[in-house]
Amino acid sequence: MLSTIAAAAGLFVATNLDDIVVLTVLFAVAARGTSQLRGWQIVAGQYLGLITLIAVSFLAALGLTIVPDEWVGLLGLIPLAIGVLGLVRTLRGNDDDDEAESALKAVGLLGVAGITIANGGDNIAIYTPVFRTMSTTDALVTIVVFLVLLAGWCLLARTIGTNEKVTEALEKVEHWLVPVVFIGLGVFILIESGTLGHIASLL
Predict the structure, then answer these.
(1) Which site in 14, 43, 57, 139 is 20 to 30 Å from 130, CA atoms measured?
(2) What distance in Å separates the CA atoms of residue 157 and residue 169, rounded to the nearest whole number?
(3) How far out from the chain centre does Cα 121 lie?
(4) Which parts of the chain span the membrane according to its record (predicted)?
(5) Average pLDDT of the chain?
(6) Euclidean distance between CA atoms 121 and 71, whole angstroms
(7) Cβ contacts of residue 70 below 8 Å, gap of 6+?
(8) Comparing 7-21, 59-73, 171-185, which segment has the lowest mean pLDDT?
(9) 3-state class of 59 per DSSP?
(10) Which residue has the higher pLDDT, 113 or 188?
(11) Is residue 43 classed exposed, middle or buried when 0-12, 13-18 and 19+ CB atoms within 10 A define those classes?
(12) End-to-end CA distance of the chain
């Protein structure tokens, strides 16, 4: 049991290190109170996204492929679109806080879930063989560990994101930083998943 818990913890940390950056940015923006994005939406969206990733991985481990691997990367279009929208508004020179953060206003719970799924799309390829080789008991323990550690992940990101120095620094660059983070995330997902290469091969 202890070895299963330790392995699950290591797997979670290894596959979610990049997620902490996105989470921190989201919590930092929510902490300022100028966006409609709320902390509970970030946490709930993360859980919804992680549960979806686990469910898809579990089904894939049973031999049921819902979406071909090469198309999972298309989920990267979600953060990419949010980032581009925010960047366009920034380039237009709109300094109004409500308008400048309008890209994040549309995120909400489902948007956060979508970003979580997109950012964790490659996790499916890792979780699937792990679940396939586990007993039902070990798989359930692993899932519980994932859900518990996600709470700690959110707490860590919230602690960093709501730090006074962090929020003060973010206030100066957020009009650029937030769109850039999401655009970078979207592009990374599209490239890392091999989706762009697959599309190019079809053209």
Answers:
(1) 43
(2) 16
(3) 9
(4) 6-30, 42-65, 71-91, 103-127, 139-156, 176-200
(5) 77
(6) 10
(7) 193, 194, 195, 198
(8) 59-73
(9) helix
(10) 113
(11) buried
(12) 50
